[in-house]
């Protein structure tokens, strides 16, 4: 099962990825999580990525494609993977196709979660994530049982530095300009599925599960 989760910032990609992971044993590959881990560790990659992430811009393709290619070569991706937040540019999508072609694989479904801008802004202001297991919560829509503590692992919850209103607006603009064209890229490959993300997360997951049952 080779799947891509697409959608604007705050569409619920991470939230749905957690539900998918719990139902299907495939690795969840989030380039955003990978960059945030590198920032946290203070590596060269992290220092480079932080410059772009803080302003809501995309990390350059050559950097991003390299880390995904390396990740997809890991043994746990042999029988499938769930990409979250990659690809985000036509260059990344073309590079991904080339990598997969070499391994005799292809993308089987590109699931695009759509949510109106005003809902996104509201969601982002309330998002908190676990430092340890990356679980995603929302102080308004999906709070943890104990404020500031992850229900799943007891880790500390934090607010992402790129969730301020200015950076979120930039991320939305970047999504529309650079990532939206990918919808027609995957439509042409007959693998695009659009899902209405402006409903309860469990309702959104029901639709995604129906799609994934085919594989
Ligand atoms: P990344 O981490 O990928 O961020 P993003 O795409 O902007 O998406 P988010 O993670 O913000 O949102 P999400 O869709 O996962 O929503 P979530 O489930 O958390 O990227 C960050 C940065 O890294 C980029 O700006 C860029 O700089 C860089 N980067 C990453 N990938 C790159 C690439 N490929 N190329 C270049 N640069 C790259 O949900 C959001 C909130 O809403 C949560 O609080 C959640 O609880 C709540 N929520 C979710 N679903 C629902 C629902 N159905 N109803 C109510 N609330 C909900
Ligand atoms: Mg995410």
Radius of gyration: 16 Å
Q: Can you give the helix content as a percent range?
A: 40-55%
The overall average pLDDT, rounded, is 96
Named once each, the bound ligands are: BIS(adenosine)-5'-pentaphosphate, magnesium ion
Main sheet characteristics: 5 strands, parallel
CATH topology: Rossmann fold
Q: How far apart, in Å, are the first and last alpha carbons?
A: 6 Å
**What series of H and E elements makes up the topology?**
EHEHHHEHEHEEEHHEH
Total tally of structural domains? 1
Envelope shape? globular
User: How many helix segments?
Assistant: 9
Q: From the coordinates shown, what is the CATH architecture? A: 3-Layer(aba) Sandwich
CATH top level label: Alpha Beta
Structural class call reads alpha/beta
Low-confidence stretches: none
Strand order of the largest sheet: 2-3-1-4-8
Residue share in β-strands: 5-15%
Query: Which superfamily, in CATH terms, is the homologous superfamily?
Result: P-loop containing nucleotide triphosphate hydrolases
What are the main properties of this structure?
215 residues, alpha/beta, Rossmann fold, five-stranded parallel sheet, 9 helices, 47% helix, binds BIS(adenosine)-5'-pentaphosphate
How would you sum up this structure, described in words?
The model has no long low-confidence stretch (mean pLDDT 96). A hairpin with a 5-residue loop joins strand 5 (127-130) and strand 6 (136-138). The chain has helices at residues 13-23, 31-41, 44-53, 61-72, 90-102, 117-125, 165-179, 181-188, 201-212, and strands at residues 2-6, 28-30, 81-84, 109-114, 127-130, 136-138, 157-158, 192-196. It is globular. The protein has a single domain (2-115, 176-212), classed as Rossmann fold, CATH 3.40.50. It has nine helices and eight strands. It is 47% helix and 15% strand. The relative contact order is 0.19. Helix 1 (13-23) crosses helix 9 and helix 4 packs parallel to helix 5. The site of BIS(adenosine)-5'-pentaphosphate has 36 residues, from helix 1, helix 2, helix 3, strand 6 and helix 9.
């Amino acid at each position: 099962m080779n799947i891509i989760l697409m959608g604007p910032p705050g569409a619920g990609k991470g939230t749905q990825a957690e539900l998918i992971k719990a139902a299907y044993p495939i690795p969840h590959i989030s380039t955003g999580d990978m960059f945030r881990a590198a920032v946290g560790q203070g590596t060269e990659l992290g220092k480079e990525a932080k410059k772009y992430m803080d302003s809501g811009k995309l990390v350059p393709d050559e950097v991003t494609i390299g880390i995904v290619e390396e990740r997809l070569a890991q043994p746990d991706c042999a029988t499938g993977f769930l990409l979250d937040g990659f690809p985000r540019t036509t260059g990344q999508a073309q590079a991904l196709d080339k990598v997969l072609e070499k391994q005799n694989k292809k993308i089987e479904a590109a699931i695009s979660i759509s949510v109106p801008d005003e809902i996104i802004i509201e969601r982002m202001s309330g998002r908190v994530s676990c430092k340890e297991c990356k679980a995603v919560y929302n102080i308004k829509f999906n709070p943890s049982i104990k404020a500031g503590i992850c229900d799943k692992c007891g880790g500390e919850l934090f607010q992402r530095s790129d969730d301020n209103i200015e950076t979120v607006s930039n991320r939305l603009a970047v999504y529309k300009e650079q990532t939206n064209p990918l919808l027609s890229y995957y439509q042409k490959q007959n693998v695009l599925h659009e899902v209405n993300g402006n409903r309860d997360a469990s309702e959104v997951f029901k639709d995604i599960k129906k799609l994934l049952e085919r594989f």
